[in-house]
Amino acid sequence: MASFKTPALKNPSLSLSSKPRLPSAFSVSFRDNLRFSRSSSRPQRRFLILTASAASISSKPTVLVAEKLGEAGLTLLKEFANVDCSYSLSPEELCTKISLCDALIVRSGTKVSREVFESAGGRLKVVGRAGVGIDNVDLAAATEHGCLVVNAPTANTVAAAEHGIALLAAMARNVAQADASMKAGKWQRNKYVGVSLVGKTLAVLGFGKVGSEVARRAKGLGMHVIAHDPYASADRARAIGVELVNFEEAISTADFISLHMPLTAATNKMLNDETFAKMKKGVRIVNVARGGVIDEEALVRALDAGIVAQAALDVFTEEPPKQDSKLVQHERVTVTPHLGASTIEAQEGVAIEIAEAVVGALKGELAATAVNAPMVPAEVLTELKPYVELAEKLGRLAVQLVAGVSGVKNVKVSYASSRAPDDLDTRLLRAMITKGLIEPISSVYVNLVNADYTAKQRGLRITEERIVIDGSSECPLESIQVQIANVESKFASAISESGEIKVEGQVKDGIPHLTKVGSFEVDVSLEGSIILCRQVDQPGLIGKVGSILGQENVNVSFMSVGRIAPRKQAVMAIGVDDQPSKESLQRIGEVPAIEEFVFLKL
After folding, report:
1. Which of 518, 536, 556 marks a domain boundary?
2. Does pLDDT of 420 surpass 70?
3. Is the preceding omega at residue 320 within 30 degrees of 0, hence cis?
């Protein structure tokens, strides 16, 4: 969890660890930022805050439950609010009803679109997603319209793990195929000979709550379990008897692969033609995570080629999949219709978890499961806006530089400023650094509300340091530096003299800039993406790299070289508007004077 070297905030009611109550009357307007104005005898202050208090309404708030919810959750809701259970609403019917509701609870089948928020007329204060994924909720529209979005990420963990194990065993023993054969009047014992699980290697990709529970159960079946997850705790893995390995080793040595990662830009189609080609022939794959992490057409090709012996899938890129789907109809594929959380116990647990979150939000409490709604004084937000962008991008850069299997556990953030410690609120900056570190490989949406909680859940310790410098206090910050300790780096030059990955940045003319990598000074705008090259400083090198990129029509936005001394080692930072092809990056790496390079997405 985060630790601090800064004095307490002037207004302790804004502490993330407290549960602040909102005042009795309020209104929200939508000009430059969402503004919170209060009717009271005290002087007004304006905040960006996206929760609301039910105390301002004389009668009970109204909660619309648009999909089936467990009875225990409904009971909790009814103790606090009027509950309207209206299932299978069309989009038009939902838009008509929503203007009369203070909260909405959905599962995965209801799309909460921008039109829904616009139709609410400002009354809708909370959307509760009874489950983990929030792909069906327009988060940007929710935030714009002052609506908090909460989910229920923990209650279905055991159910999903059990379903993963059920598919694993059913696949290995051809249970579904043999069942269908017998019901067709056949008796084919020889055709459906299976494989044993004992002594086989299971690679768990994504070692979070569900992944670790699958690992526990697989160990009980006598399997050797390895795992890959950049944020997995080595101590927790060892306690379960699991070995953490890198991605390449995981997919190349496993007899079985079980997927438990979120669907993000980094994991989209993570299993594809290239990765299937690296797997052991005859590997078996289970997916109870998200359909999009597998390139489904590539999986069919791998099944037909014999690279993948079998697959067991509970999730699909398109749900429900088309009836003529080659993957679903494949004889060596076992499928279920997204049943991972479908147990009586899990449904009740999810119902209780989401009901508690929605009721708490309507009372004006900050929810640990909130997935949007940063709360910060509007004037501070305006001043820190470019530094917020800088903070997130430094976090994204730093985590992409990490290599190896140890994971990110210790991060130090240093703020150089001429302001007094109590005149610089860094909560939002710390949250955005956390966002940059975690979001690229996680389904969690990190913001000021849940940043410290999310970091703690992943064993990520963030410490902050203020460096006081001389200068004008008109500028809130001179620079932000992010250091990650006790990790290896994909780009050795990013390691500082003290042994940590180090990146530093400044805001120049309102635009975030990368100004330091390891011990090398650079100056490149943090727009688009970046290529970092360590090279021997010599004439013509910039032209060679620029020529390679130009031949592919990749536009170079900035280029900067930091060097130790003339003709010695240097680091070149190149800002590009587009992602170069693998071939172009390979050609850059083959330039004789370039000793190492890395491509980083922003």
Report:
1. 518
2. yes
3. yes
Residue 209: Cβ within 10 Å count: 18
Q: Are 489 and 402 in contact, with CB atoms under 8 Å apart?
A: yes
**How is residue 281 annotated by DSSP?**
T
* Domain total of the chain: 4
Task: State the Cα–Cα distance between residues 253 and 227, nearest whole angstrom.
Answer: 11
Question: Phi/psi of residue 432, each to 5°?
Answer: -70, -35
- Whether residue 52 is contained in a domain is answered as no
The answer to whether residue 557 sits within a structural domain is yes
Annotated active-site positions, please? Answer: 290, 319, 338
Geometric angle at alpha carbon 35, from 34 and 40, rounded to 5°: 155
Residues written for the chain:
602
Q: What is the pLDDT of residue 242?
A: 96
CA–CA gap between residue 353 and residue 523 (Å, rounded): 47
Q: Does residue 211 carry a pLDDT above 60?
A: yes
Q: Can you give the CATH number for the domain in which 130 is found?
A: 3.40.50.720
**In terms of domains, do 313 and 196 share one?**
yes
Q: Decide if 299 contacts 272 (C-beta within 8 A).
A: no
- Please give the DSSP secondary-structure letter assigned to residue 458: T
Lowest mean pLDDT among 37-41, 241-245, 345-349: 37-41
Q: According to the model, what pLDDT value does residue 53 have?
A: 38
* Cα separation, 84 vs 235, whole angstroms: 47
Range 532-554 average pLDDT: 87
DSSP for residue 529? E
Quick check: 334 pLDDT over 50? yes
Query: ∠ at Cα 592 (590, 594), nearest 5°?
Result: 80
Residues 162 and 123 in one domain: no
Tokens of 566: 């003339």
172 and 270: one domain? yes
SS3 at position 437: helix
pLDDT band at 426 (very low <50, low <70, confident <90, very high): confident
132-167 pLDDT, tens digit each: 878 789 988 887 777 889 999 888 899 999 999 999
Residue 307 covered by a domain: yes
For residues 116 and 205, membership in a common domain is answered with no
Whether the Cβ atoms of residue 250 and residue 203 lie closer than 8 Å to each other: yes
The span from the CA of 309 to the CA of 205, in Å, is 19
Per-residue CA distances from 332 to 50, 387, 441 (Å): 49, 52, 30
Do 421 and 546 lie in one domain? The reply is: no
CA-CA distance, 396 to 484, in Å (whole number)? 12
- Whether residue 441 is contained in a domain is answered as yes
Q: Which CA distances in Å does 150 have to 103, 124, 562? A: 11, 13, 45
Flag whether the pTM goes above 0.70.
no
Domain residues for 177?
155-185+192-335
Which has the higher per-residue pLDDT, 195 or 383?
A: 195
- Which among 276, 288, 212 has a CA at the least distance from the CA of 244? 212
Using alpha carbons only, what angle is made at residue 284 by residues 282 and 287, rounded to the nearest 5 degrees?
A: 155
Asked whether 202 and 256 are in contact (CB, 8 A), the reply is yes
The runs of H, that is alpha helices, within 254-373 are 273-277, 296-304, 326-329, 344-362
| Strand pairing report for 26-30 and 47-48 | unpaired
316 compared with 20, residue with greater pLDDT:
316
What φ, ψ does residue 106 adopt, rounded to 5°?
A: -135, 165
pLDDT tens digits, residue range 468-500? Answer: 888 777 788 999 999 999 988 999 989 988 899
Q: Among 39-48, 117-126, 540-549, which stretch is predicted with the lowest mean pLDDT?
A: 39-48
